[in-house]
Design brief:
The protein is mainly alpha-helical. The chain has two domains: about 45 residues; about 200 residues, Intergrase catalytic core (hpI Integrase, Chain A, Orthogonal Bundle), CATH 1.10.443. Helices cover about 45% and strands about 5% of the residues. The strands form two sheets. A three-stranded antiparallel sheet has the order 1-2-5. It is globular. The C terminus is likely disordered.
Length: about 260
Amino acid sequence: MRVAGAGDPTIIKTLGVLQSVLAYAVVEGRVAENPVRKVTKPRQAVERRVAPVPPELVERLRARLGARDAMIVSVLAYAGLRPQELLALMWEDVDDGRIAVRRKNVDGRLYPYTKTRQDRTVDLLAPLATGFAEWALASGRRSGLVMPRPDGEPWTRADWGNWRRRVYQPNAKAVGLISPVPYDLRGSWVSLLAWEGKTLLEVARQAGHSVAVCDRHYAGIFEAGPPDRTSAAAAIRAAREPGVRGVYALFDSSGVRESQ
């Protein structure tokens, strides 16, 4: 399962089922002992809450990147797509002020469903809509994959790993991100929606989470909103203006409110 790329939670669940089956087999006298008990299981990591990445930091990061890489960061941070969803996104999915999220990319293979097997739509923020238009001109593509490899094929797991290690991580560290994990940019998008007044239920629907999961991951974001409501689009535009210190700048890169 390790070689096939399965994660620790999947391995732990599988070993649990096997151990139960073989424990019953021991009781029934089918086998002499339970071999799964001797298998070293992955340690269950403590689930961490995701801290928001302020738009100011997102924009500093984008400024260091080329057109393609800046667009990847924009979609993760301003639409909240999972990396697998981003790498399966088609131009036909971006239309009429919405992004339709209906498929995922697993190691270069496209599947007609998402992680939760439920299609969803995400509101297309105006600055991101502009970004899509600019990327269409820069890439020369208006159909098929929004973010293909240079040969037009879907990204593989190795392609994403190389991008994360060679492009994202060094630039994220350079702008001061404490946890340079691309997936954490979803926290930026969640914070934009939460801080403009969206409810936990509304955010959960667009994020493709249950309310319970959304609360577990992002409760700190909803609890530490800024003093004034600001639209997500306005916050992004403000972050793109040099020298502007908006309400989101009250939060450092760890998501902790600075002293005022």
